[in-house]
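Appendix C reproduces, verbatim, an entry submitted by the partner laboratory led by Prof. M.T., so that reviewers can inspect both the input and the predicted structure.
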Amino acid sequence: MGFRHTETVRFGHVDGAGIVFHPRYCEWVNNTIEAWFSDGIGYSFTDLHLRDGHAIPLLESHYAFRKASRLGDVLTFTLTVTEMKRATFDVRIVCTGPEGDERMSADIRMVHVRLEPMKSADIPDWLRAKMEAFRAAPRD
């Protein structure tokens, strides 16, 4: 089961050719992860960072762009968890257009850390369980 988040392509998101400027996808991927934490898991970045002193910085990312998106398109970003380890987790985010056509995909690895002393830390069991609810179905 994946988490879904939508973004509308606005004038400030497009380049001179009228298509989404590719760095905007990086912002939308981050927005999707933040929305997943707050709306899907029930643990806002405010609580994660400011109240609890933790963070989930990016370790690795790979983007593949399939089709251009244009001004006015409503894009759907679907996030699934693909791997969970002690302190790291991987997610795959697929962006589709209004007709369900794939526009972009991103494979992201993040690490759970304590802000002081900025070191990796085990993902708490309660958080791991909530994240696992968004695990991708195994591939054959």
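Helices lie at 23-41, 45-51, 125-132. Additional entries are available on request from the coordinating office.
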